[in-house]
User: Which sequence fits this backbone?
């Protein structure tokens, strides 16, 4: 829609919202929140989400929880965020179920409780929400709120990874690389590391670099290894910064350059990679 059409829709929503129509109240809140048809105004967004939430609208209850959690249009209040996430979650609203799981996992607005976190992650995961599927995988992998089970962790990482979740793609690559919950398969590890790396995940970029460096799951290629180490290094990952230094020092995948090697060793050391200490003295 063009600007005039958005403005017209906004005016109609405002009229309906002021007459108490819950869908209009929620959608008016969305307009204010996103600045669609009106100037962005978190205070007004909060006002209309609250109006719709109090009428039982799950979308509005969830968004009201977000406002409280982020302090948008209202003073930040994790207790209120928890309250409204719970209201929407109990209506089987998957994003709210996931957010409620986060609250229980982090102890935000409620006492920390991994079993409850697991419960709500599972409810949302079974509705197909990828971030919940990933979080459920983390619970199974680490025994948070449930008995540790790498097979189940792998299952849920895979479900989320296939929907494009970056973190799950990285974890799935790790599972394949280390034989956690699945038979070790370097080809599959490479595939999933690459998927996550291309979405900017720094640990995946580093591990993809190692795949190329050692020829695991792909033909050995020092230039590609250097490329991916550098991608992770530029995001501040100290391990990869050290690897870049080593590549420069030994001329692996790049023209040998001792000045560049020293630079990357120093950056790595300053970022906490203690193995670089001997290379900067």
Assistant:
């Amino acid at each position: 829609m063009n600007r005039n059409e958005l403005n017209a829709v906004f005016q109609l929503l405002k009229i309906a919202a002021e007459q108490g129509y819950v869908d209009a109240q929620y959608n008016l809140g969305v307009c204010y929140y996103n600045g669609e048809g009106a100037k962005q105004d978190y205070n007004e967004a909060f006002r209309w989400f609250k109006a719709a939430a109090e009428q039982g609208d799950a979308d509005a209850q969830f968004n009201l929880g977000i406002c409280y959690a982020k302090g948008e249009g209202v003073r930040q209040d994790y207790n209120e965020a928890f309250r409204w996430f719970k209201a929407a979650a109990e209506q089987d609203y998957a994003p709210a179920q996931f957010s409620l799981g986060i609250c229980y996992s982090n102890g935000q607005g409620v006492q920390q409780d991994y079993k409850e976190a697991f419960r709500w992650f599972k409810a949302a995961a079974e509705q197909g929400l990828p971030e919940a599927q990933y979080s459920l995988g983390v619970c199974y992998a680490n025994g948070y709120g449930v008995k540790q089970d790498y097979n189940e962790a792998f299952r849920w990482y895979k479900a989320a990874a296939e929907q494009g979740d970056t973190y799950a793609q990285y974890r799935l690559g790790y599972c394949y690389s280390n034989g956690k919950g699945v038979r070790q398969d370097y080809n599959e590890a490479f595939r999933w590391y690459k998927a996550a790396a291309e979405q900017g995940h720094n640990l995946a970029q580093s591990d993809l670099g190692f795949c190329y460096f050692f020829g695991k799951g792909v033909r050995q290629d020092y230039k590609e290894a250097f490329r991916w180490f550098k991608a992770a290094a530029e995001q501040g990952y100290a391990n990869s910064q050290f690897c870049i230094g080593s590549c420069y020092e030994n001329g692996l995948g790049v023209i040998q350059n001792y000045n560049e090697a020293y630079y990357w060793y120093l950056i790595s050391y300053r970022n906490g990679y203690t193995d670089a200490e001997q290379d900067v003295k």
Summary: The CA atoms of residues 32 and 38 lie 6 Å apart. The two ends are 62 Å apart (CA to CA). The first helix runs from residue 3 to 18. The chain has a mean pLDDT of 95.
